[in-house]
Design a protein that fits this description.
By secondary structure, this protein is of the alpha/beta class. It is 36% helix and 20% strand. Strands 1, 2, 3, 4, 5, 14, 15 and 16 form an eight-stranded mixed sheet that branches. Strands 6-7-8-9-10-11-12-13 form an eight-stranded parallel sheet. The chain starts with 14 loop residues before the first strand and ends in an 8-residue tail after the last strand. The structure holds N-(iminomethyl)-L-glutamic acid and fe (iii) ion. The site of N-(iminomethyl)-L-glutamic acid has 12 residues, from helix 4. The site of fe (iii) ion has 5 residues, from loops.
Amino acid sequence: MLQSQEVKQVQPADGIWHNARIAPSGNPDQVITDAAMVLRDGLIAWIGTEAEMPDEFGQAGLARHDVGKRWITPGLIDCHTHLVYGGNRADEFALRLAGASYEEIARSGGGIVSTVRATRLADEDSLFQQSARRLEALLAEGVTTVEIKSGYGLDLATERKMLRVARRLGTSYPVTVYTTFLGAHALPPEYLGRADAYIKLVCEEMLPALHAEGLIDAVDVFCENIGFSVAQSEQVFSAAAKLGLPVKMHADQLSNMGGTQLATRFKALSVDHLEHLSEADVIAMQQSGTVAVLLPGAYYFIRETKQPPLELLRRYKIPIAISTDSNPGTSPSTSLLLMLNMACTLFRMTTAEALTGVTANAALALGKADRHGLLAAGRAADFVVWSVESLAELAYWSGLNPCSTIVRAGQFSVALQKETA
Ligand code: NIG
Ligand code: FE
């Protein structure tokens, strides 16, 4: 069972993993067949074909783990989530099914702001419990790294509470959590008509305070007609840059306001959503080395019809990542495998592109390609053994979880158990 680390017995996975097929970067077009991987002290000591494994490992009396020709990939990375929040928005879903649009609901005081109310009301333990079950679902499918955004507090105390819960999830479960401050997600009701004053609060109080508390790994902005303008986004990015924090952006989801152009000027790690991205935006992304994060769950759930420009992204060789965008309003999903399926069926990505999108390219989108998304000597042992004939099956099935073993930081995590269970 995968367990909260607060209760789990540590089971090291050290030894020789052999009789395997390994895709070291997650890309099924670059594989090692008849592969072996040696784990020592939680790290990958060696990886290659079994025939080439140095004798010193074979003779060292190490434990042997026969994988039975199954596939091994790096642990999956969910690089864009809003996993921590209070309540849910099933009532709003009903309104949307009856014909209301996501924007209409947001403008009439629902949407993000209704989750803000529930999140402000939840105490830290309740928020942890509500979020933990979503995290558990992600982990059960082989996720070993997850990004979690704030943005349902919109005041200092609640943004702090969200980020603390996110950090605690990372110390309680076998997963690496990266936190992103999304104070500029929506206008809190008490600032109605005073967006510039709220942005000042974000830049001058919330961001510096939460950064000083070590709660922020990156900074995000929702740049949209129902979010914040390009000028307001620029203020947030400038404040982040002053603190040396990397930035990313919810950009070009519902309209093209020039968000991606701004983000690339700040060398954003990623721009995310991108249904309304233009060719000029893609060229700017190429120059700034910005990753495109596509979110098929949100596209699906809000019944979007405009597709992100996949051909342009391919033409300009932009790295593409895929993520759940797990959130209560536009993507109440806790399945990264289902997102692989949707990226292929809805966006016509290849299965190889989709898989690279939740491994190597997702690591790039977090600015952590040196630590995640690649199985190589000297790296932490975060990997998944899959009971599949071909890796394409990870994107092919919907609902079947072919994950057979998960090793994270060199330790087994096999199934899930709640912190309090
Ligand atoms: O990624 N677009 C803005 N933020 C979220 C939705 C948040 C919500 O509706 O609660 C997104 O789609
Ligand atoms: Fe999002």
